[in-house]
TrEMBL record:
Protein source organism: Paenibacillus allorhizoplanae
Protein name, UniProt field: N-acetyltransferase domain-containing protein
Record-linked Pfam families: Acetyltransf_10
Every N-acetyltransferase domain range: 3-139
InterPro entries on file: Acyl_CoA_acyltransferase, GNAT_dom
Length: 144
C-alpha cells in the first residue's frame, strides 16, 4: 500500500529509503529532503509491506500533468520482488500523468526499459558517468 510520507521526512526509515536513490553523501540527502519540504508540486510516497516501508517514490507533477520522477528506491532485501514496478504503476493510476521522465544512471536503465520507458543516452554528464533520459508516454484508456 502506498502512503503519502511527505509529512514524515524526518523519520529515520523514510530518510534511509530516500538515501538509496541519491548520491551517497549527507548533502545529497538533505537536498532531496529540502526539495520535498519546500516545493508544493512534489510528492513523496512509501510502499509498505507487512507494516514496514520497503520502497519510496518521489516526483514532481506540473499543471500539464507531466511527471518528473525524482526518486525511486527499494530497500536492498526487497529488490527484485516487483515493488518498484508496483509503485510506479500505482502512481500512474492514482496521479494520471500524461508523460513521465526520469534521468538515471546505467544501473537503473534496464528497470525503466522493462517497464516500457524509451531510453536516450545523455552522454557523460559527469566524468566517467553516462546518464540516461527515460521517457514514458502514458496511454489513455478507452472509455466504453
Amino acid at each position: 500500500m502506498l502512503l503519502n510520507v511527505k509529512s514524515r521526512l524526518h523519520e529515520g526509515d523514510i530518510q534511509q529509503l530516500l538515501g538509496y536513490s541519491v548520491f551517497p553523501d549527507p548533502d545529497s540527502l538533505q537536498e532531496a529532503l529540502s526539495q520535498y519540504e519546500n516545493n508544493e508540486n512534489t510528492w513523496l510516497f512509501a510502499y509498505e509491506s507487512e507494516g514496514l516501508p520497503v520502497g519510496i517514490i518521489g516526483f514532481e507533477l506540473n499543471e500539464k500533468q507531466e511527471m518528473i520522477l525524482r526518486h525511486l528506491a527499494v530497500e536492498p532485501e526487497s529488490r527484485g520482488e516487483g515493488f518498484g514496478r508496483g509503485m510506479l504503476l500505482e502512481i500512474i493510476d492514482d496521479m494520471q500523468p500524461v508523460r513521465i521522465t526520469v534521468e538515471t544512471d546505467e544501473e537503473a536503465v534496464q528497470f525503466y526499459r522493462n517497464v516500457g520507458f524509451v531510453i536516450r543516452s545523455l552522454g557523460e554528464k559527469y566524468p566517467g558517468v553516462e546518464r540516461f533520459l527515460c521517457t514514458y508516454e502514458v496511454e489513455e484508456e478507452d472509455e466504453e
